[in-house]
Amino acid sequence: MGEDPWIRRYHPADNASARLVCLPHAGGAASYFHPVSRALSPAADVLAVQYPGRQDRLAEPPLRSVPELADAITQELLPWLDRPVVLFGHSMGATLAFEIGLRLEARGTAPHAVVVSGRRAPSRHRETTVHQRDDEGLIAEVALLDGTDPQVFENPELREMVLPALRADYTAIETHRPAADAKLTVPLHAHAGEDDPRASVEEVRAWSAHTTGAFTFTAYPGGHFYLNEQAPAVIAALRTVVASAS
What span is annotated as the signal peptide, if there is one (predicted)? Predict the structure, then answer.
């Protein structure tokens, strides 16, 4: 495959029998999944998605709509569908994984499975307006979720670099109105932090209504970024799902 601004392969595994596509949280970047790629290669070919407006795509304007992001990423994934694909997303990435899964199914190229983490089910919509806050309010929300090093926002240059993509992502996810009855037909695996203030265990377990295929749910100690502390268990779960695609 040629150079693709959307896809990062930190540990290319050309002989793997399945691919894992990782979709970051709001404000996140492909590099967040470098440890996942390292842990699963060469058993899985891990593709980490890089949204516009961050890291090496900083000069590009970030997209502000879930459908735009899902459409663009779906198109970028088409060349990688020569073997089974598992979609994995955390928080905003979970919504994108689901939306991309729906698009791939509609094309007749369904993923092997979808794994969602730290995100409320489409049928458990909450009205939130973080994207309408000033910069300090946006930073306060990120601090509550404990997913970004506070030093990022203490450095004026880093803060200026990070905030536009963060606000665009929050705009995308908070203005998205998913179909409450949307369903996949492939296996759907949901993961949650037991103390997540933005996606309760009940709200994440409700993903069970969004597939006609198999469903599993796992809760872990921790908050919204429970997977930072629970990485070995989450990676083991991903390894199992990927292995089932082989």
Answer: none
SS3 per residue for the chain: CCCCCCEECCCCCCCCCCEEEEECCCCCCHHHHHHHHHHHCCCCEEEEECCCCCHHHCCCCCCCCHHHHHHHHHHHHHHHCCCCEEEEEECHHHHHHHHHHHHHHHCCCCCCEEEEECCCCHHHCCCCCHHHCCHHHHHHHHHHHCCCCCHHHHCHHHHHHHHHHHHHHHHHHHHCCCCCCCCECCCEEEEEECCCCCCCHHHHHHHHHHECCCEEEEEECCCCCHHHHCHHHHHHHHHHHHHHCC
Residues classed as catalytic:
91
Tell me the per-residue pLDDT of 159-218, one tens digit each, with 9 for 90 and over: 888 899 999 999 999 999 988 899 999 999 999 999 999 999 999 999 999 999 999 999
Of 96 and 133, the structure prediction assigns the larger pLDDT to 96
Instruction: Go through the domains of the chain in sequence order and give each one's CATH number.
Output: 7-244 (3.40.50.1820)
Q: Taking every pair of C-alpha atoms in the chain, what is the biggest distance, in angstroms?
A: 48
Distance CA 102, CA 185 (A): 9
- Please provide the distance, in angstroms rounded to a whole number, between the alpha carbons at the two ends of the chain: 21
Residue with tokens 């967040």: 32
Spatial separation of the C-alpha atoms in residues 154 and 245, rounded to whole Å: 44
| Nearest alpha-carbon partner for 166 in 134, 192, 197 | 134
